[in-house]
Amino acid sequence: MAIFRYVSRSTFRANKAFFTKTRSISVLREQNLGSNVGPGQVKIVEVGPRDGLQNEKQQVPTDIKISFVNKLSKTGLKVIEATSFVSPKLVPQMADCSEIMTKITREPGVNYPVLTPNLKGLEKAISVGVKEVAIFGAASEKFSQANINCSIKDSLSRFREVVERANLAGITVRGYVSCVLGCPYQGEVSPEAVAEIAEEMYKMGCYEISLGDTIGVGTPGSLNKMLTAVRKVVPIERLALHCHDTYGQALANIYCALEHGIRVFDSSVAGLGGCPFAKGATGNVATEDVVYMFQGMGFHTGVNLTDLVRVGNYISQNLGRPNRSKVAVALNAKNL
Ligand SMILES: CC(C)(COP(=O)([O-])OP(=O)([O-])OC[C@H]1O[C@@H](n2cnc3c(N)ncnc32)[C@H](O)[C@@H]1OP(=O)([O-])[O-])[C@@H](O)C(=O)NCCC(=O)NCCSC(=O)C[C@@](C)(O)CC(=O)[O-]
């Protein structure tokens, strides 16, 4: 009972209503959610080589990054966000983006998207044969300024140019919305603000909108409100969730999103990550933990968990730190 002292009555009521609505896991799993992902399946977008490494203070050698992507490619993951074509002055870790895209071994059936904030980034990405790019905006004005040096309105004009040019080149575009559950500069972000930019990005031609809890502050309570607003304007099968695990809420949030019908989730092997423009934000939810949960629920991920843990160990050793995935720690203790 002691725990209830720390939970406000309204939060408790919202959570109770939410969990009373919860369908059984088997019904959840068999839902057919349109063209993106088949029934019983989830799509994992591995963002370790990009989101995971972009905040590393020490420059990670390019050959280690290439080997990291190549090893991930052998685990069964079908989407690996490989790097970003952003300003090397602002994010020096991603300065080797062209070399990475030229030298990785692209496995058939694996997609290697990259971030491109503007036409300059897109043209560079096209020149090295990229097939999918992502534009990244924010639901918070202050974060937009800090991250991409322009207002939300101006970012949307830039993104439109990127989408049009990408379409001409036969390149698909994913859209990120950051700060969907809170902003490091302005605090609260309204669900309506998230819905507005998500709708704009969807309408301009992004095939999928990834909703980013950039600083990992969300809970199933706040996520539920935000998704209820966003799904009114973007079809649920076109939404993805991108969780950072700063407050340890990521798996609970992913479960909540599954309940809403989302089947695409971004994560980072070994829980790598953080954003250079979001102080205090820790890593993405660990891919190993996500895969373990999905497998336990009977979802098909296509990923070999043992191989994945080995890749997480590989990159963690190269970064000189322990693997941050709880599942990896548990499996490593059994001498995997
Ligand atoms: C967006 C810009 C480029 C605007 O930057 P800007 O300063 O407004 O751009 P500019 O057009 O005025 O150009 C200034 C200089 O940057 C160069 N430049 C301009 N564009 C490029 C480019 N594409 N690639 C390489 N160089 C570029 C350009 O050539 C020029 O060089 P100079 O003449 O000074 O030598 C800049 O602010 C930037 O790169 N920001 C970095 C953003 C970033 O990487 N953030 C982290 C990723 S987002 C994230 O982590 C959140 C996410 C996606 O994971 C989801 C979540 O967790 O919520």
Automatic annotation (TrEMBL):
Residues 42-309 form the Pyruvate carboxyltransferase domain. This is hydroxymethylglutaryl-CoA lyase. It catalyses: (3S)-3-hydroxy-3-methylglutaryl-CoA = acetoacetate + acetyl-CoA. One of its GO terms (biological process) is L-leucine catabolic process. InterPro entries: Aldolase_TIM, HMGL, PYR_CT. Pathway: Metabolic intermediate metabolism; (S)-3-hydroxy-3-methylglutaryl-CoA degradation; acetoacetate from (S)-3-hydroxy-3-methylglutaryl-CoA: step 1/1. It comes from Rhizophagus irregularis (strain DAOM 197198w). GO terms for molecular function: hydroxymethylglutaryl-CoA lyase activity; metal ion binding. CDD domains: DRE_TIM_HMGL. NCBIfam families: PRK05692.1. PANTHER family: HYDROXYMETHYLGLUTARYL-COA LYASE (PTHR42738). It is an enzyme of class 4 (lyase).
